[in-house]
């Protein structure tokens, strides 16, 4: 949950600044930004990754070497995963034994995973009258592979368990087992979406949409079940660009101009909002506005997050009230905000007062006092867990699935892993959990 534009973190303050799952990297880590994917990029049009067959067959994860290179196929199609792997005989040969030496030491697999017990609740897809939603910050490889992450943020995590090949196999196994209808992901590397997650989840009937952050390698992904929903339209935005260019935000932009220091910081952020309008395949009268975001990460950035929420809610209002009148809203994401924050209060109560303490979250010189509101009645479907992010220096609730309480209700919330499961390897991520966040999962139904 890092926004690195203009901000780098002094490692000497890591102990207190890791709050809100802070991940900071040097400027060198982002010197070659990837090109943005076009809106509407779909999973079926992307090339299939090697992991699809692994998931389709529901095989256990293969052990990987320390380098975690993809398994090579031997004669006859068998996979070599370590010393002594066997293959079927080639044509004209009687013997099929073929030794294969690993290119590096073979590390232990994950054993029991933190999500195994959760899968017991999600063995089957919900019926057509219900929707299973997932929101999950999956920890971008862009951030996991920095020296700062390995030595300061996650020193307790085995290095091989931070490698993307290892983590994405866990992720595919975890996500496939949730049998979800909607999945909103944050911190998704573009390459991971294209080469791994999109083709793997496509095999389970899920269509994927991707929105990359401005000048970053990672972004947001939304998946929806094809036999339940069709995509009517997409309305993705970058907060800074929308604030400057869209008439919808003119009044907010004029108010923000009174506070140039805050305005500059808001416009420097790379955060984006992904908005998809879906229609039920069995009941065309049922539509959903599904929003997904990842707000600014800094512990003193409460004022910035309030502005980002104001932009998000205005945009969602335009889609869910003007373009598609009165359709229910599901708003997922990593909001980098605890339940006691102004951001959480703004979303759940419908407004924020100009004297709220978060307007001075970074001191009086950056005071930005506004009175803002939105028309939605939103409820945190999974409540307020003790934590959704658990790292060595911080644990707290930062992630939410907000739902339109006038149109939707909660059928069940899938329990989070136990504290013992989370702390088996001290904190997250670990050999048994691929991210420093925990997925939120709930079953919803129309009222």
Beta-strand percentage range:
15-25%
Subunit arrangement of the protein? single chain
- According to CATH, the fold-level topology is Deoxyribonuclease I, Chain A
CATH evolutionary superfamily = Endonuclease/exonuclease/phosphatase
What is the CATH architecture descriptor? 4-Layer Sandwich
Protein name: 2',5'-phosphodiesterase 12
Main location: mitochondrion
GO biological process, one term: mRNA processing
Family: Belongs to the CCR4/nocturin family.
Quick structural summary:
This protein is 25% helix and 22% strand. It has 447 residues and is an alpha+beta fold.
What does this structure look like?
- Residues 1-20, 73-109 are annotated as: Disordered.
- Residues 135-437 form the Endonuclease/exonuclease/phosphatase domain.
- Its cofactor is Mg(2+).
- It is found in: Mitochondrion matrix.
- It comes from Geospiza fortis.
- By secondary structure, this protein is α+β, with helices and mostly antiparallel strands.
- The chain has a single domain (124-446), classed as Deoxyribonuclease I, Chain A (4-Layer Sandwich).
- 25% of the residues lie in helices and 22% in strands.
- The chain has 14 helices and 19 strands.
- The strands form 5 sheets. Strands 7, 8, 9, 10, 11, 14 and 17 form a 7-stranded mixed β-sheet that branches. Strands 5-6-4-3-19-18 form a 6-stranded mixed β-sheet, covered by helices on one side. A two-stranded antiparallel ribbon has the order 1-2.
- A hairpin with a 5-residue loop joins β1 (72-73) and β2 (79-80).
- α7 (164-177) packs parallel to α8 (190-202) and α12 (302-323) packs parallel to α13 (342-349).
- The longest helix is centred in the C-terminal third of the chain and has 22 residues, at 302-323.
- It is globular and about 55 Å long.
- The two termini are 34 Å apart.
- The relative contact order is 0.16.
- Mean pLDDT is 83; it is low at 1-90 and 92-98.
């Amino acid at each position: 949950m890092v926004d690195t534009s203009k901000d780098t973190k002094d490692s000497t303050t890591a102990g207190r600044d890791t709050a809100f799952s802070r991940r900071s990297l040097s400027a060198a880590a982002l010197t070659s930004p990837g090109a943005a994917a076009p809106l509407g990029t779909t999973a079926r049009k992307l090339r299939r990754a090697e992991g699809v067959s692994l998931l389709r067959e529901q095989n256990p994860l293969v052990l990987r070497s320390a380098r975690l290179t993809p398994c090579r196929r031997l004669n006859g199609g068998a996979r070599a995963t370590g010393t002594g792997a066997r293959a079927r005989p080639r044509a004209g040969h009687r013997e099929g034994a073929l030794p294969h030496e690993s290119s590096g030491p073979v590390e232990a697999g994950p054993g029991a995973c933190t999500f195994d017990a959760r899968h017991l609740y999600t063995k089957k897809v919900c019926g057509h009258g219900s929707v299973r939603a997932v929101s999950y910050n999956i920890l971008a490889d862009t951030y996991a592979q920095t020296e700062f992450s390995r030595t300061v943020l996650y020193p307790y995590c085995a290095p091989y368990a931070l490698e993307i090949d290892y983590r994405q196999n866990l992720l595919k196994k975890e996500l496939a087992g949730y049998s979800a209808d909607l999945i909103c992901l944050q911190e998704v590397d573009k390459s991971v979406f294209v080469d791994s997650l999109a083709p793997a989840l496509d095999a389970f009937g899920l269509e994927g949409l991707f929105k990359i952050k401005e000048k970053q390698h990672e972004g947001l992904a939304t998946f929806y079940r094809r036999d339940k929903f069709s995509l009517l339209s997409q309305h993705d935005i970058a907060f800074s660009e929308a604030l400057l260019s869209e008439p919808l935000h003119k009044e907010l932009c004029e108010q923000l101009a009174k506070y140039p220091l805050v305005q500059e910081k808001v416009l420097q952020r790379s955060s984006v909002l992904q908005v998809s309008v879906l229609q039920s395949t069995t009941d065309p009268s049922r539509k959903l506005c599904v929003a997904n975001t990842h707000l600014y990460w800094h512990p003193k950035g409460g004022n910035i997050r309030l502005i980002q929420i104001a932009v998000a809610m205005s945009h969602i209002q335009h889609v869910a009230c003007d373009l598609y009148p009165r359709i229910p809203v599901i708003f997922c994401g990593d909001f980098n905000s605890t339940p006691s924050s102004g951001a959480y209060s703004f979303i759940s109560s419908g407004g924020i007062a100009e004297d709220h303490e978060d307007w001075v979250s970074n001191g009086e010189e950056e005071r930005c006092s506004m009175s803002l509101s939105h028309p939605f009645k939103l409820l945190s479907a999974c409540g307020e867990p003790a934590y959704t992010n658990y790292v060595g220096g911080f644990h707290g609730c930062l992630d939410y699935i907000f739902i339109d309480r006038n149109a939707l209700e909660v059928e069940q919330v899938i329990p989070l892993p136990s504290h013992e499961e989370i702390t088996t390897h001290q904190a997250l991520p670990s050999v048994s959990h691929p991210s420093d966040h925990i997925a939120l999962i709930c079953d919803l139904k129309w009222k």
